Amino acid sequence: MSITTLRASLLHFANKTQSPDTDLSYFADGLLVLENDKILDIGSAAELLPRYGQAKHMDYSGKLIIPGLIDSHMHFPQTEMLACYGEQLLSWLENYTFPIEAKFADGEYAAAIAEIFLQQLLKNGTTTALVYSSVHKVATDALFRAAKARNMLLAAGKVCMDRNCPDWLQDCPDSAYEDSKALIEAWHNNGRLKYALTPRFAPTSTEAQMQRLGELARAYPDIFIQTHLSENKQEIEWVKSLYPQAKHYLDVYDHYHMVRPRAVFGHCVHLEEDEWQRIKDTGASIAFCPTSNLFLGSGLFDLAKARELDINMTLATDVGGGTSFNMLRTLGEAYKICQLKGTNLSPLSGLYMMTQGAACALQLEHSVGNLNPGTDADFVVLDYRFDELTQLRLTENAAPEDIIFALTMLGDDRATQSTWVAGKEVYQKQ
Ligand code: GUN
Ligand code: ZN
């Protein structure tokens, strides 16, 4: 038995809540106790230290520990194409995305990028992510292998697309089915890994492909499903012309049994009333991707509407449509979008969206998203006074919500002191 204690300020949301501003758990001088890969105990240092005299002690006084962050929508093959200039969604996909994703037919190349991608996640305090691979099975295997080596709780899936993209990047209904099925069998619930069925978006799948993927969705009720929905106005018109029988964009996915708990719809910037309601009624989730929506000029997400309906909300970088791997930075852009929409997004409700709120939406709260005893020890130690400016802005006894907010605007990976996955320190700032 190996027990380690970490002394620091501790902040998390122990429960599912609609009031993160008041329903939080905070210990200014706290102790987080780990036993092997799990959290054993959490509380004030004064109370807990005498109980764990024999443990290995680590002192992070002056730092803030929060749960490992959850990024619910990102593309691993787009790691090398952040910040490609000048386009909106559809031409951006054609001019930049598809040519880059073609490189992932090479498993060795994919393995090398997977290393960089996961390192970027950990460097930014993200320990769980819902990830799109490319269309290639070899690339998806490579990503899973790299995540397994780090013992991360990662959900990922092979992109499926058999039309409206270059020939050399297409699968077909049967290969999408067979490859996805083989990947599910190999990786879903293999250690901490999960599979996410991944039709790229309605325009790039034929109805025959959607049909086959719907069969998989029904055969495996606990896998994730991830796709894009209602991101860009031109895209929505295109979907209407490709699927004239569908009531609306979401209805395409619904017809193929893909709207359900653990289905995560990226963007949802221009939803119709009926789509909002259907997402609510089915227990599906939305991934709000603020940096991407601004960068690609897609539009301003309506968080007030999602809250009004109490929809499962998560926050995501959408790397490489998004512009940063850093979830706190991403929250800063979400805050600005909400400012433009006249909606308040408090720092604690933002933090909730990328920790416990996301975990509850994705049905992962028994493993990640909080610091409750019995969960997996995935967390981040934040060095919130990492430079002259943050030392000026934040005093040593700053309130936790002020720390989080300041880091959304002033922070980046320099605020990550260390990142822990399943009880092991997997990243440490130099
Ligand atoms: N819609 C379909 N594919 C993509 C993608 O790779 N990025 C974004 N932002 N939207 C998409
Ligand atoms: Zn995306």
Describe this protein's structure.
It contains 16 helices and 16 strands. The two termini are 29 Å apart. The strands form two sheets. Strands 5, 6, 7, 8, 9, 10, 11, 12 and 13 form a nine-stranded parallel β-sheet that branches. The radius of gyration is 21 Å and the shape is globular. α4 runs parallel beside α5 and α12 crosses α16. The chain has two domains: 124 residues, Roll (Urease, subunit C, domain 1); 257 residues, Metal-dependent hydrolases (TIM Barrel), CATH 3.20.20.140. By secondary structure, it is α/β, with parallel strands linked by helices. The site of guanine has 11 residues, from α2.
What level of helicity do the residues show?
A: 25-40%
* Extended strand count: 16
Radius of gyration: 21 Å
**Sheet having the most strands:** 9 strands, parallel
Bound molecules: guanine, zinc ion
Give the averaged pLDDT, no decimals: 98
Termini separation comes to: 29 Å
Which structural class should the secondary elements be placed in? alpha/beta
Which overall shape is indicated by the principal axes computed on the Cα atoms?
A: globular
Q: Output the CATH class name of the largest domain.
A: Alpha Beta
Q: Which spans of ≥5 residues are poorly predicted at pLDDT below 50? A: none
Question: In the CATH hierarchy, what is the superfamily of the largest domain?
Answer: Metal-dependent hydrolases
Into which percentage range does the β-strand content fall?
A: 15-25%
- CATH fold name of the largest domain: TIM Barrel
Number of helices: 16
Query: In CATH terms, what is the architecture of the largest domain?
Result: Alpha-Beta Barrel
Number of domains: 2
